[in-house]
Amino acid sequence: MQFNPRNPGNLPVKPNGERDWSSSLCACSDVGVCTCPCIVYGQLQTRLSYLNRMNAPHPSGGDGCGSDCMVHGALTVCCGIGWALQIGQRTAVRNRYSIEGNGCGDCMCAWCCTPCSLTQEVHEVDQEERALARAGAPQMYVQDGKM
Q1: pLDDT recorded at residue 141
Q2: What is the CA radius of gyration of the chain?
Q3: What are the residues whose beta carbons fall under 8 Å from the beta carbon of 129, sequence distance 6 or more?
Q4: Which among 60, 137, 124, 118 has a CA at the least distance from the CA of 95?
Q5: 87-130: per-residue pLDDT in tens?
Q6: 64 near 42, Cβ under 8 Å?
Q7: Residue 112 CA neighbour count, 13 Å, CB half
Q8: In 3-state terms, what secondary structure has residue 99?
């Protein structure tokens, strides 16, 4: 069996080449993501960007208070639409990990359940980072699963 850091749980792949999410949308239990989704969004954006560039975990776990966080926070506080930024992020996570779904589903998840959507995305990135660390990726930072 070949090791795939983008499917470390070895979840079944459907005939279309896609798989299900590693965790349920209802597996959201982190208070931080419920109270400060902008910080989690910012961290996830920088972690995904680093994974795409370096194929290794972000050395500091991502920048939670950078520009991505500020934009998300401002849109949430001023207009109530910070969730709209998450549509593209959720699509990027789905595409990276070959997870079944579509843009309409991404929009509904981001709009109806921002914290749960973020938690599900973070879980996928956490799994890849842990798998890369076990495989000996150049950067050995491993997120402990809490944001």
Answers
A1: 44
A2: 15
A3: 47, 51, 57, 58, 141, 142, 143
A4: 124
A5: 999 999 999 999 999 999 999 999 999 999 999 999 999 998 98
A6: yes
A7: 8
A8: strand
Per DSSP, what are the bridge partners of residue 99? 19
Q: How far apart are CA 72 and CA 80, in angstroms?
A: 10
* pTM reported for the whole predicted model: 0.84
Residue type, 36: C
- Of the given ranges (44-48, 77-81, 121-125, 130-134), which has the lowest mean pLDDT? 130-134
- Domain residue limits, the chain: 34-134
What is d(CA 43, CA 67) in angstroms, rounded to the nearest whole number?
Answer: 10
CB 116 within 8 A of CB 109: yes
Q: For the chain, where are the alpha helices, taking DSSP H only?
A: 31-35, 37-54, 67-79, 83-96, 103-112, 114-134
Burial class of residue 28 (count of CB atoms within 10 Å of its CB; 0-12, 13-18, 19+): buried
